[in-house]
């Protein structure tokens, strides 16, 4: 219901008037691929820009499509998280590969948080003797 209420042709004040060609997400619904009339290509995830190539084609991008999440698609991706194909008016097709994002294991994150709390308590004890 929220998607049907969007007005794709309206621009917010202060945003340059650029036309975008948007394409549906891959089967997982994780990424959104965009192509612009200036030839730029972008890959977004939910709230953040992950990949951008300014004027990758130098002319209007007419279509973008993600490599499907099939067994063969995963073989083609290799070490990359996603792959976007873009086509421009000049009939050139380009492949844009999104490198795998690095993440911390949960146990390491918890260990770092515990260390930070202990360091804060020690610093407060040094700054204000008798704090505890």
UniProtKB/TrEMBL annotation:
Question: Which GO biological process entries does UniProt record here?
Answer: endoplasmic reticulum to Golgi vesicle-mediated transport; protein transport; regulation of COPII vesicle coating
Bilayer topology? Single-pass membrane protein
Question: Where would you find this protein in the cell?
Answer: Endoplasmic reticulum membrane
- Cellular component annotations (GO), alphabetically ordered: endoplasmic reticulum membrane
Which UniProt keywords are listed? Endoplasmic reticulum, ER-Golgi transport, Membrane, Protein transport, Repeat, Transmembrane, Transmembrane helix, Transport, WD repeat
Write down the Gene3D superfamilies for this protein, in alphabetical order.
Answer: YVTN repeat-like/Quinoprotein amine dehydrogenase
Residues spanning the membrane? 31-53, 104-128
Q: Which domain of life is it from?
A: Eukaryota
The record's InterPro entries line, in alphabetical order, gives: Sec12-like, WD40/YVTN_repeat-like_dom_sf
A molecular function (GO) held by this record is: guanyl-nucleotide exchange factor activity
Tell me the protein's name: PREB protein
């Amino acid at each position: 219901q929220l998607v049907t209420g969007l007005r794709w042709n309206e621009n917010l004040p202060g945003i340059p008037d650029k036309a975008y060609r948007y394409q549906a997400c891959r089967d997982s619904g994780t990424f959104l691929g965009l192509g612009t009339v200036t030839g730029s290509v972008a890959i977004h995830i939910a709230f953040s820009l992950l990949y951008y190539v300014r004027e990758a084609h130098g002319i209007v991008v007419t279509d973008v499509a993600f490599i499907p999440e099939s067994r063969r698609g995963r073989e083609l991706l290799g070490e990359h998280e996603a792959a976007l194909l873009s086509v421009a008016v000049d009939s050139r097709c380009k492949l844009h590969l999104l490198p795998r994002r690095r993440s911390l294991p949960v146990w390491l994150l918890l260990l770092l948080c515990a260390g930070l709390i202990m360091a804060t308590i020690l610093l407060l004890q040094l700054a204000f003797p008798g704090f505890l």
